[in-house]
Amino acid sequence: MQSIKRTTIKDVAKMANVSPSTVSRVISNSPRISEETAKRVKYCMNELGYYPNAIARSLANKTSNTIGLIMPVRPGETLLNPFFQEALRGIVRGATVCSYDVLLATFQGGEDEIDSMRKLISASKIDGVILMTSRVNDNAIKYLREINFPFCVIGSPLDDKQIFNHVDNDNITASYELTKHLIDEGKKKIAIIAGDKNLIATVHRIKGYEKALIETQCKLDENLIYTGDFDEKTGYTYAKYLFENKINPDAILATDDLVAFGVVRYLLEKDIKIPDEVAVASFNNSILSRQFQIPITSVDIHADTLGEEAVKILIEYMQEGKVKRKIVPHTIHIRRSSSSKSSRF
Amino acid sequence: MQSIKRTTIKDVAKMANVSPSTVSRVISNSPRISEETAKRVKYCMNELGYYPNAIARSLANKTSNTIGLIMPVRPGETLLNPFFQEALRGIVRGATVCSYDVLLATFQGGEDEIDSMRKLISASKIDGVILMTSRVNDNAIKYLREINFPFCVIGSPLDDKQIFNHVDNDNITASYELTKHLIDEGKKKIAIIAGDKNLIATVHRIKGYEKALIETQCKLDENLIYTGDFDEKTGYTYAKYLFENKINPDAILATDDLVAFGVVRYLLEKDIKIPDEVAVASFNNSILSRQFQIPITSVDIHADTLGEEAVKILIEYMQEGKVKRKIVPHTIHIRRSSSSKSSRF
DNA sequence: CTGAAAGCGCTTACAG
DNA sequence: CTGAAAGCGCTTACAG
């Protein structure tokens, strides 16, 4: 297709009457170039519309200036959940600021996440990887550590024994505060319906919930804790279970808005008053939580900031080799689902 | 960081007792290699864990096997709207099937979409581009045609005089059918509140609406047609306008679910019965349209399929140079917002 | 069917 | 401060 002759470093060199090496040094802002030469070379580059070939550059200095991201295949993880989209925005924005590009891949057939990473890494297409979640026994993390390839995860290690770059919310505290809020609203029997129990985020959110209950001397009841998936069905199913089995909580904490919708749908069907009879609170502050018939109290985890910070940490690591972690503050939005006093909503 | 010595084509050649050229030919499945040699070389590649360096390959054959995608910056275009996310999934899936990767970039500061494309193209990082929308006077399309760079747009040209690769729904027909449905429900005065009027999709959806009205001899009233943005505010504002100015339509067609939510919010506030007093229908079949207090009739445009087909068309074009267009069928979901007879919802 | 050689467009020690 | 040369890891006409 493209048969347009590219202008190369040689053309610039010829025009500026210097060697290609010099042009290369001008491009990379080498300090050992006279200002005069630099100016002349830059002028010629402009004149010729020269733009360095990133591929050639990558080959020569063994770095692609590209970050890899494996897109999850399970629709539940991306299609429905705005988290991925917002985090992605943050990642791309952060990368752009640092002059990196983002390569998006997915897997198919018999492959898994690790296969797709291996491919990109072996092919030298990427310099580092962003992992969008952290699981209890995370094979992707294990793999990347084994081959000692730069990465940063959005999420946390299970415990502090594992050390790697990561950025996360303080999910324990967020969940703790949310539970406290429900207690402050006079709720005595608070259930939690959480997402995938293999996600560290789930583990942490349950932990925060338990912490608040223990602290305020409420009972910690096994019958009030459930895990499932990040979807509406999980919420509906366990809400139904709770009431059909006469466990009858007066508040339900969901770890994702989608789960909360399922909960609310059940409550509405049964004409259970929200928040008076049962309060609901949740995570992610998606547009649904704001627009829903009954606006839902929800924690904004600032997914875009998580994404942006993850890239920054990764790039810094690639340049300086220092492992970092960063906690992004959350914001709790109190709405009608948990507080009859709630003003605007 | 990475000081692991890569195994290269030379290592394989040495082990297999052939020249690097031969190994290269085995990699690219050249037919002029004896089966025996091929087998031996493949064995050695496996043994050494060899994986071709994509960057070196790109440099040598001037093709990156990567497709570029410019992520819109305006939050309204991506953050809130699931269209982008679903289309992206389709794009990445389609690319993976064809062994392509997807490079995601955005712009910042004084740049625009075209600057970021220019960068990626000049740097030889991508072989083709997917455009996620088409506008009335689309500079991105103009630019790509000028430099004769392969691209495919999700959307349509304004008229058939412009020829380029694209995939789209038949928005005129979809809108026509939706309007007909409202007429069939007994509605006589149907308003349309559309998104950005510079988008071809908006133009087409208004056209389909008008076509249905003209055909059924309803009046075509300028006071019933509004354009704004793809957001809730637009819906709320114009719904309010329609009723405060006593235009009082008995149905409102929105061109996006977010717009529809704004409309519904206004109607609920004013205690206007849906669908009896005012019916509402919309586009995109987002999860909100299904989960909302009042489930909203909406057209599923199958954004993921649009994305997947766009990549396929683009890749075919890059290989064979044939310009193509494809129409992805839509699905209309009738729900309570427009039909009291609607069963499940 | 296979190999030697040149080349893709850069970078970077080395030498001056 | 600048240049000549080698090299990054492939591909591909050309020759045999």
Automatic annotation (TrEMBL), chains A, B:
Keywords associated with the record: DNA-binding, Transcription, Transcription regulation
Domain of life: Bacteria
Residues in HTH lacI-type domain copies: 7-61
SMART domains for the chain: HTH_LACI
Pfam family of the protein (one): LacI
Record PANTHER family: HTH-TYPE TRANSCRIPTIONAL REGULATOR GALS (PTHR30146:SF109), LACI-RELATED TRANSCRIPTIONAL REPRESSOR (PTHR30146)
Name of the protein described by the UniProt record: LacI family transcriptional regulator
